[in-house]
Amino acid sequence: MKAVVYEKPFSVTIRDVDDPQIQHPNDVLVRVTSTAICGSDLHMYEGRTAAEAGIVFGHENLGIVEQAGAGVTSLSEGDRVVMPFNVACGFCKNCLAGKTGFCLTVNPGFAGGAYGYVAMGPYKGGQAELLRVPFADFNCLKLPPGNEFETDFVLLADIFPTGYHGCELARVSPGESVAVFGAGPVGLMAAYSALLRGAAKVFSVDRVPERLAKAEQIGAIPIDFTKGDPAEQIKEQTRGEGTDKGVDAVGYQAQAHDASHEEPAVVLNSLVETVRPTGMLGVPGLYVPSDPGGPDEHAKHGQLLVSIGRMFEKGQQMGTGQCNVKQYNRQLRDLIIAGRAKPSFVVSHELPLEDAPGAYEKFDQRIEGYTKVVLHPGHALAA
Ligand code: NAD
Ligand code: ZN
Ligand code: ZN
Questions:
Q1: Is pTM, for the whole model, over 0.90?
Q2: Could you list the residue range(s) of the whole structural domain that residue 198 is in?
Q3: Claim to verify: residue 98 and residue 132 sit in the same structural domain
Q4: What is the pLDDT of residue 352?
Q5: Band of the pLDDT at 256, cuts 50, 70, 90?
Q6: Residues by chain with Cβ below 5 Å of ion ligand 2
């Protein structure tokens, strides 16, 4: 089958690789119809987090069950399903508590598994024609048949739940004000989720014009961080108080306010300043324990200069970590079906799988409006 294969930093290619096989009675094989490229793929694409030549990328996958193992009970051939990016078992201590992003079974020695990563277990990615899904009864979310809402539903694999998770970590409640840093796909989904949860005022901070325009389009207030300290800009619009809540949807590759270099703690520190005393910070943006490309010795070891003293003084709380997609994907699916949510506004490009190399390049540079790319293997639904 054809698959998107990582070659070396800044290079992916389309290659023929072996078809996946059922390896356990609880596996299914899914014929992928939609698979999205993520900001998290870019960390590997840039050679910043571990990626081995030859691995197949892709953790945001939707498709049709092609073959079900003998032990699978809830799925049949022909079912349309979307898979959380987390691979999880469903029966370990963390899965039982709903923390499926930290499954203790699927990736021995580590809490959490995912498709298409070196560090997240042996699960090949779905930017390919076929995908093996382990513990399939647990990991597949069934969708209505046909291809209605395809582009909305594929976002249930990661970014819609992850944006929502950012709001959950910050306990965003009706009537509150929220500052979301980053208007990439995750940040836009966080701003959208904050509005779905009834926030009165949502600020969306970035510098990429197309992304800020999308934020404005959904009813958020765009803030360009290159036009002045974003915390000050937001305080001016909140009677000097700051916001009730904040979400970091940027992570460790945050750019300094003049956009001239990376400053890994800048967003965390901006949030501490922006959010009012006793407010809460949700951090779905990724921070890593080691980053060979980090701008200084501390950053290379995942240690950042965060204003913990100021945070303590303000009595703020912070929540971090991978999204437990299964906590939210069914509910968010049903909001889509009911017509109450349409996350596909974030998708800028729908392309055949073969166009992945160019799409990676442009998405990585955040140019030509590349905000979120959905690939359609086999030209299944190519626009
Ligand atoms: P992205 O890189 O497309 O978006 C990041 C955005 O942040 C960009 O638009 C960039 O211009 C903006 N930015 C950079 N510096 C900034 C600053 N100082 N202030 C405000 N904005 C700034 O990535 P994405 O796909 O939206 O993902 C965002 C983050 O979320 C990444 O770190 C990704 O790895 C992470 N992520 C986490 C999870 C999870 O489960 N926790 C899941 C998916 C993605
Ligand atoms: Zn993702
Ligand atoms: Zn588990």
A1: yes
A2: 159-320
A3: yes
A4: 97
A5: very high
A6: 38, 40, 60, 158
Ligand 1 touching residue 249 (CB < 6 A): yes
Please state the length of the chain.
Answer: 383
| Core vs surface per residue 84-109: b (16+ CB within 10 A) or e | bbbbbbbebebbeeebbbbbbbbbee
Give pLDDT, residue 102: 98
Cα 49 to Cα 39, 209, 287: the distances in Å are 12, 28, 11
Determine the pLDDT at residue 368.
Answer: 85
- Per-residue pLDDT, averaged over 66-74, amounts to 98
Beta bridge partner(s), residue 375: 35, 351
180 lines ligand 1 (CB under 6 A): no
135 Cα–ligand 1 center, Å: 30
Q: Are residues 195 and 305 in the same domain?
A: yes
Q: Is 169 in the pocket of ligand 1 (CB under 6 A)?
A: no
Same domain? For 20 and 134 the reply is: yes
Which pLDDT score is estimated for 383? 38
User: Of 106, 118, 103, which Cα lies nearest the Cα of 321?
Assistant: 103
Least Cα distance to 274 among 211, 169, 207, 202 occurs for 202
Strand pairing partners for 281? 246, 318
Q: Centre a 10 Å sphere on the Cβ of residue 189 and count the other Cβ atoms it contains.
A: 30
Q: 66: domain CATH number?
A: 3.90.180.10
Q: Is the CB of 286 under 6 A from ligand 1?
A: yes
Here the tokens at position 148 are: 């209605």
Ligand with smallest separation from the Cα of 162: 1
Where does 112-255 have alpha helices with state H? Answer: 136-139, 150-153, 159-169, 185-196, 209-217, 230-236
Distance between CA atoms of residues 188 and 12, nearest Å: 26
CA distances from 380 to 108, 116, 234, 299 (A): 35, 21, 44, 42
Q: How confident is the model at residue 379, as a pLDDT? A: 56
Helices 159-169 and 329-337 meet at what angle, rounded to 10?
110
What is the CATH number for 278?
A: 3.40.50.720
> 204 pLDDT exceeds 50?
yes
Domain tally, the chain: 2
Closest CA to 14 of 369, 359, 272: 359
Q: What is the secondary structure of 227-271 as a DSSP string?
A: GS-HHHHHHHTTTTS-EEEEEE-S-TTPBPTTSSSB-TTHHHHHH
Same domain membership, residue 218 and residue 300: yes
Quick one: 202 and 310 in the same domain?
yes
